[in-house]
Amino acid sequence: MSEPDVFAALSNPVRREILLQLRKGPRAVNDLASGFQLGRPAVSEHLQVLRKARLVREEPRGRERYYHLDPRPLSEVDDWLKAFTHYWKQRLAALEDVLDEESRK
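^ ArsR family transcriptional regulator, sequence as received from the core. Prediction below:
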């Protein structure tokens, strides 16, 4: 299996929700699985995709594995989205023009 990229890893809503939960701090698989209608094996599979995309890292603690968010690969997404920033600026400028016209009436 090839290494999934950040965009592929983020394409799944369960994986995005796992990342949101990990923003609060490291969590064990069982803790993470309790927040989903999925079994532990399914959550583990999602965690492996996130791990291969370097979005989470594992820390063994006794019999448990804790997962930590690693936000550094999200910079790839941020860099990609910056290319589209000017579209939003144009739309906001157009909205501002319309609001200015309406306020002058």
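The longest strand covers residues 56-61.
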